Amino acid sequence: MATSAINVLQLVSRTLVANSTVQTFVGPRVLTGHRFDASENTIEMPVIIIAPQGGSAMMNKIKQAQTFHLYAYSKTSEGQALDLYAAAFDALCSTRLYNANISTAGYAYETDRPRSGYNDRLIAWYARGTWTAQAAG
Asked: In whole angstroms, how large is the CA radius of gyration of the chain?
């Protein structure tokens, strides 16, 4: 069975949503991509966005590496965005990515520590780090 890039992003998303500390910040608001109209400014915050950046797959289609940016956004403060990122880091680091409803499993690791700043379009603070998920299935 081939492993899907969407499955990998869903594994990361579901792992974050299942974490009680992350839930305290965002509830179910973990999105796979910037899929909203920033000009309308209707996104509820704080929020985590997993933005795919590409990756690689083995010729047998069973194993892949998916690179993604993990954004933690907050309208409150840069500190809250960094705290949310830290909660996401704790939830993902050294954690098996697995869900009974997804045929892919794996793990993720941070490749670049977060940088923080202010997004003028979203009118929100952010912390963004880069991750790689290794998955097979």
From this structure: 15
At position 12, the amino acid (one-letter code) is V
Tens-digit pLDDT profile for the chain (137 aa)? 445 778 889 999 999 999 999 999 999 999 988 766 656 667 889 999 999 998 888 767 678 899 999 999 999 999 999 999 999 999 999 899 999 998 889 999 999 999 999 999 889 999 999 999 999 87
DSSP the chain: ----HHHHHHHHHHHHHH-HHHHHHHTT-EESS--S-GGGT---SSEEEEEEEEEEE-TTSSEEEEEEEEEEEESS-HHHHHHHHHHHHHHHBT-EE--TT-S-EEEEEEEEEEEEEEETTTTEEEEEEEEEEEEE-
Cα dist from 88 to 11, 41, 115, whole Å: 13, 24, 14
Lookup: tokens for 58: 């083995």
**Could you tell me which of 116, 117, 124 has the C-alpha nearest to residue 38?**
124
